[in-house]
Amino acid sequence: MSTQSQPRYATVIDRYYIDTRPLVPIPSNTKSTQPLPLLSTLQYSDQEAVTRFIRPADRFMSLASALLKYTFIHRRAKIPWSRVQVSRTPHPHRRPYWTPLEDWKAPVEGDSGSRIGGLEFNVSHQAGLIAIVGCSTPTAQLPTPHTHVAPGSSASSDSYEQLDLTGHRTPTLTPNEVRLGVDIACTNEDKRTPQDMTTQEKFDEWVDIFAEMFSDRERWNMRHAPIPVPVVEREEGECWDSEGSSVDTANGTPLQDRDARLINLKLRRFYAYWSLKEAYIKMVGEGLLADWLRELEFLNVVAPPEPAHHHPSRDHTPTHSSARTSSVAPKHLPNVQANNNAHLYPPELRHQNEARKWTPPDKAERGMTALLHGKKVEDVDIELVAYDEDFMVSTAMRGVEEQEPGSIADDTSQWKRWLRLDIEEDIKPCAEGRCSCLA
Predict the structure, then answer these.
(1) Strand 391-398 and strand 380-387: pairing?
(2) How confident is the model at residue 254, as a pLDDT?
(3) Is there a single domain that holds both residue 204 and residue 141?
(4) pLDDT tens across 46-78, in order?
(5) Are strands 14-19 and 419-420 parallel, antiparallel or unpaired?
């Protein structure tokens, strides 16, 4: 599995996301008849995929995933919404991709006047947040040049066996091949995130559960590597040594609470490792079934801190993260799905407030090192950012060079930023043919 560098294709990277938490009724009721917006505008096979889920939260995430894929393909390929079709590689990987239409007139990108050859994209969803990263490509990004599994097709298992997934399943790139991966990690997810992680012993035991995914070195670093002290706590006089012991030189806060806070930061870093590895293997297309998971190692991993932003619902209440650091674990800690009030903002302030919830592009974590079979990976751009209190988003990009501002896109304010899409305001006009995307 080579990491040999290939020529890169220069283009703009789209980063879109939808937060479905305001859409899900609270408390969630599996018998809820909450309408699913724009469901009827999707292809029938995609409608079936959405309605197959029972829980409203899962239905909305599946719907948002489909809407993001349709929006990206519609805008970048410049085809009508009704003609968008998403294909997938066979089980077990089921990686989505787009097959250009036979009569497709590829749009022109850049100053050179060259036409694009296809699209590449990847989607992630976790705890109500759904994200897509995508770009144009020099050629169609298919499992093979002439074979794919169309939506709703009844291809036999024999035809699946003939499908060449080399480009999707190994870390080796062929010329003109572009691969993107994205993963969302949630540090406070209902029924998944441990809520009583207050001692080093408990943390060590929990980390070792994932021995099949992380190498011995990665798990040692998760447990013992020094944690950068948040600036606000350094200013308050707190010091942490490299072994994790903490002393408060300012106000004598009990060491038990300080140690619990340190464990919480280590837990956050664990999710950073998880997100980075998931993004890389999703870029390749093999997922957690890859037999080389432990051979893919990340070093010097730093979890981005929670972005500093004003949130009206949290002015006088402790944050989820700070609540988990108490030496006494709370019995009913609210999960992240129940803690989003973005829909309360006036429309003119929504995008501005959303931008504050993200790690600024110039502060994204890019200093980690990726090793594959002990060799440094040189040809993959990896980035890790935080969203709100409880999310981290990793991206892995190979074969593509993100275009400099102004070369293709007129609006450089979104350079390397994640853009939140509103279903009613941003996506509905596209789905109903009232947008100007095809102009």
Answers:
(1) antiparallel
(2) 62
(3) no
(4) 999 999 999 999 999 999 999 999 999 999 999
(5) parallel
Contact residues for 234 (Cβ-Cβ < 8 A; gap 6+): none
Q: How many CB atoms lie under 10 A from the CB of residue 360?
A: 12
Conformation bin of residue 333: beta by default, left when phi > 0, alpha when psi is -120 to 50? beta
Classify residue 311 as exposed, middle or buried by CB count within 10 Å of its CB (0-12, 13-18, 19+): middle
Q: Tokens in use for 402? A: 């993100």
- pTM > 0.85: yes or no: no
What CATH number should be reported for the domain holding residue 90?
Answer: 3.90.470.20
With the C-alpha atoms ordered 118, 125, 326, 273, is the resulting torsion angle positive or negative?
Answer: negative
| Cis upstream peptide for 429 (omega within 30°) | no
Is 403 in the same domain as 366?
no
Segment 416-436, tens digit of pLDDT: 899 999 999 999 999 999 999
Instruction: Kindly report the length of the chain.
Output: 439
Assess whether 159 and 240 both reside in one domain.
Answer: no
CB of 123 within 8 A of CB of 282?
Answer: no
Tokens of 284: 């390749």
Give the bridge partners for 239, in sequence order.
247
Q: Which helix (H) or strand (E) holds 247?
A: strand 246-248
Span 85-100, pLDDT tens digits: 999 988 777 889 999 9
* Prior bond of 138 cis (ω within 30°): no
Q: What is the largest CA-CA distance in the chain?
A: 72
Q: Is the dihedral of CA 421, 71, 361, 114 positive or negative?
A: negative
Domain check: are 438 and 370 in the same one? no
The reported pLDDT for the residue numbered 243 is 52
CA-wise closest residue to 84 among 73, 76, 95: 73
φ, ψ (nearest 5 deg) of residue 296: -95, 110
Mean pLDDT of 278-290: 85
Phi, psi of 44 (to 5 degrees): -60, -40
Are 337 and 361 within one domain? yes
Rounded Cα gap, residues 86 and 367, in angstroms: 35
- The number of angstroms, rounded, from the C-alpha of 225 to the middle of its chain's C-alpha atoms is 25
Q: Are residues 420 and 327 in the same domain?
A: no
pLDDT one-digit tens code per residue, 386-414: 999 999 999 999 999 998 655 444 455 66
30, 57 contact by CB (below 8 A): no
How far apart CA 306 and CA 21 sit, in angstroms, is 19
**Whether 218 and 356 share a structural domain:** yes
Domain that holds residue 319: 179-398
Do 100 and 9 have their domain in common? yes
